[in-house]
Amino acid sequence: MAKALNVNPNRMELSRLKRLLVVAKRGHKLLKDKQDALVKEFLVRARAVYSLRKEVESELGGCYGGFLMARAQTLPQMLEQTLMMAGGDLKVGVSYKNVMSVRVPEYGFPKQNAELSYGFATSPGSLDVALDKFLGVMPKLVRLAAEEKAVQSMALEIERTRRRVNALEHVMIPSYGEAIRSISMKLEEMERSTLSRLMVIKEIVRSH
C-alpha cells in the first residue's frame, strides 16, 4: 500500500505532483530498461567467465601435476630453494572502461621478459616444464581476474538498479498517484461546496 504524502490540497500542489509523477514514470522506464540490458550483458559475461574458468583450471591442473612430479623427483628442501630462486618480474597493465554506467577493469598482460633464474642442472625437468606452462597460462589467468571482477561489479549495479526500480514502482509512483487522487477529490468537494453556497446565496437574493 502506498504511503500517504503530507501535502496541501491546492491546485499548485496538484500541478507539482503531476509533474513529479511524469518524471518518476519516465525514470522508472529508463531504469527498468537499464536493468534489463544489464541482466542481459551479465548473463553473456557470466557464461563466458564460466567457460574461461574451466579452461584455466584445466591448464592449472597440468601445471600442478608438473609440480607434483618435480616434488617426487627431488628433496623438498631442494625444491623449495629452487622455487625461491625462480622468481620473475611480471607486470600487469590496468585500465577501465564504462559498460552501461558500470566501471569494469581491463587487465593487460604484455609480453614478459621473465626468466627462470635457477640452475637447470640441479632441478628436475618436470619443474622446468611446469613453470613454463604456468607462465603460458598467466595471460588467461589475468583475463579471468578482470572478467570476474567485471561480472561482480555488474551484479552489484543490477542490485542497486533493482532497488531503485522497486522504490519507484512500489513507493514513489503509487504515493504520487494517491496524493493526486486525494487532492483532486478534495478540490472537487470544495468546488461542490462553493457551488452549493453560491446557489443558496442566489436563492436568498432572489427571494428578497
In short, what is this structure?
With 208 residues, the chain is mainly alpha-helical. The chain contains three helices and two strands. The model has no long low-confidence stretch (mean pLDDT 82).
Topology:
Layout: H1 11-73, H2 76-84, E1 93-99, E2 102-108, H3 125-207
Antiparallel strand pairs: 1-2
List keywords for this structure.
208 residues, mainly alpha, 3 helices, 2 strands
Our count of helices gives 3
Write down how many β-strands occur, each being a DSSP E stretch of 2 or more residues: 2
Q: How would you sum up the major sheet?
A: 2 strands, antiparallel
**N-C termini distance:** 53 Å
Give the SSE string.
HHEEH
The fraction of residues assigned to DSSP E strands is 5-15%
Radius of gyration: 34 Å
Strand order of the largest sheet: 1-2
Classify the secondary structure makeup into a structural class.
mainly alpha
Task: Identify the overall geometry.
Answer: rod-shaped
* Low-pLDDT windows of residues: none
What helical percentage do the residues reach? over 70%
Q: On the 0-100 scale, what is the average pLDDT?
A: 82
Structure, described:
The chain is mostly helical. The chain is built from three helices and two strands, in the order H-H-E-E-H. A hairpin with a 2-residue loop joins strand 1 and strand 2. Helix 1 (11-73) packs antiparallel against helix 3. The two termini are 53 Å apart.
